[in-house]
Amino acid sequence: MAVSAKQKTISSAPQKSSLAGTIPTKKLTKEQLFKTHAEHIKQQNATQTPNGPRPVKQPNLEEAYPASEKSIRDLEIIPLSDLSVETHHRGKGLIVKVVSPPYLGAGAVSIVEDHWGNVDKLAIYNQGDSAILSGVPEGCIVAVKEPYYVQNGAENDFMICVDHPSDVILLRFIDSIIPEPLRLGPLLKSAGEWTTAGDQAFLQRDFPTAVFCYTEALEGLEDHSAKAPVYTKRAGVNLLLGRYDAAKVDALASRIGASTDWKAYYNAGRAAYGLCEYATSKSYFEEALKLNGKGTANVQKEFERVLARVEEEETGNYDFAAMHASLSPTSVHIDAGSFLRNTRVADSGFHGRGLFATRHLKAGDLVYVEKATLMPNQYDPARASAALYSLMVRQLCDNPSLADTMLKLCPGQLPYERTGAEGSMVDGVPVVDVFVVEGIRTKNCFSSPLSTYDDTKPTYNSVCMAKGLWAHSSLMNHSCVPNTMRSFVGDMLICRATRDVQEGDELFQQYVPVKTQVDVRNKEFEEGWGFECRCGLCEGERKSSKERLKKRKEAVLALEKFLDKKPSTGKGATIVPDATIRTVDKMMRQLEDLHETEVYESLPRLTLVYPCNWLVDAHRAKKQWGKVVKYSLKVLRNFGFNAAPRDEDPAKLTVGWDPREIYTRSGEVSLMAVHVVASLRRLAEAYAALGHKELAERCVEAAKFGYTMVTGFSEDVDALGQ
């Protein structure tokens, strides 16, 4: 399921058939099936780019059905001729031989035959590139568990549709469950022949086939000394495929109790590193070095690399600037560990589980740094969701140990009860329910720019966002006025405290940028995540009367409508007429008056942020610095930073006010945002122009401090532009 810029999403909703629940009486003949299949393959070969990307069949949650949790050996094997349309054949199974090359589209479509001589089409979806089933070769024998049979659009055209990757099993040729007519008999190879075939597949870079051949070879060997080199070969191929769980097992199985076992520990260390199990990886590399003195240069290099990851996990010391400098469109995955020691997972009084501080944290402190559990390098917003979904499915298939991390996350509402069997091993493969995976993706993923620092720059294309899963961060609950702020550098998520946090306090984040009006944003939360926010801002704003809420909406609409027709106040804009400024100021004051003092005395007034920023820019263009101070302070106030003075006379603000204290003295309902940093910069500029140099310097320091929270690491506030 490789994803590229050309990849698209295919809907998984099957067409409804009037034949639902019945065995079709008219179907394509064997000859017709082979003819149309050959035509499709011929057309594909003529039009498709070799090794080009394949589209992803992303699940439609409205059509969700559970993956089979049963072994093929516990199912009744039925003939293809017994399949009913649009029916999940619970308790039933198929064993079929692939009798055609695959047509490779969103899935692999092949012609299959059972031992009764019946033929039909089999469409296998959601198999990773490392799986031989992603394009199952002709001659292989597969088992389909609890098959789903659908009409394929054209009249008399039907196929078996396998959405869940664990619902289809590639059977070994000597498996006793294979009916006698499908067995290969004298075509079976010896262990040596299978090993040679694996070596040839490896040289041709057909790694899935190489793994299959080495597996068959191991079944034909009894002596461990003969098996060991085959385990080593399979471990190496599994490392190349990113199957780190299997690679680690194979590497350790290749040990023979001699000094040459250093290579086994070396491969096991590389596999553990790929799983981000850095302490385990370190122990394996240490064993490799013991057996091989100082080891080869590669062992020593990998050992030093894992020591750096362990230190990051323990100390939280990172060179974020170097990480940022290493980024490029083709290099977004940072080689770094996760620092999570300042947090713990516990039951939340707000919703399910949450993250809690394990020590006192000051505003600006690093709360944690998390490397993405999974994040594909796909920044096209039209393809990012499909890319993440396909990667999640692939990794759950290739590395079953990830189930402990990923499948504990909430998938939202599904039309069936989860049994908890997802991730468990059945028939040698982990049970993977693609609808559960898609639910987890939709409820837990984050949108991520290449870097938040670059995303704050005026020239950056902020539409380009990847989708990623950070499992630890996903456990943090939402607040519209959170006490943390996240930022990104490649696939690293940086979380900093936005105000002082006491040990034991629950940590909160914004799931999405919050809407300015309480009912609008809570509708978004209810539709997206199924909760009503009970943060200090939402609970406080609910005390406002419905009449006032209605009038505020009308005032906001009128103000936005008026401003949409006026010249921009941004960089390069024309000077705004005084009459327009007076009108905006009047409309803004009317909107201010609609915020009840008893409700909003200490709450953010988010509806006022936009017009205040507009007035700051309008007065700045005219170099009316006193007014710039006035409205910049209002911006801070409207974000809930109540430590900012409300006396708007700049002459009275040179004594007794330190802008750096807004982060620590503004209470529990302030909202940190890049606009706060911009306002502090405007204040610094205005104070400098008014001759208040010291106060201007304090504002610059406060802006730099805030920018570190916003970007995760940078104080370069000049990146925000003029």
Automatic annotation (TrEMBL):
Keyword Transmembrane helix annotated: no
Keywords: Methyltransferase, S-adenosyl-L-methionine, Transferase
Positions of region (Disordered): 1-60
CDD domains in the cross-refs: SET_SMYD (cd20071)
Pfam families (alphabetical): SET
Matches recorded under Gene3D superfamilies: SET domain, Tetratricopeptide repeat domain
PROSITE patterns assigned to the protein according to its UniProt record, in alphabetical order: SET
Compositional bias annotation for Polar residues: 1-20
GO cellular component terms listed in the entry, alphabetical order: cytoplasm; nucleus
GO biological-process terms attached to the record: methylation
Biased composition (Basic and acidic residues): 28-42
Molecular function terms, GO-annotated: histone deacetylase binding; methyltransferase activity
Cross-referenced SUPFAM superfamilies: SET domain, TPR-like
Residue intervals of the SET domain: 341-512
Protein name (Swiss-Prot/TrEMBL): SET domain-containing protein
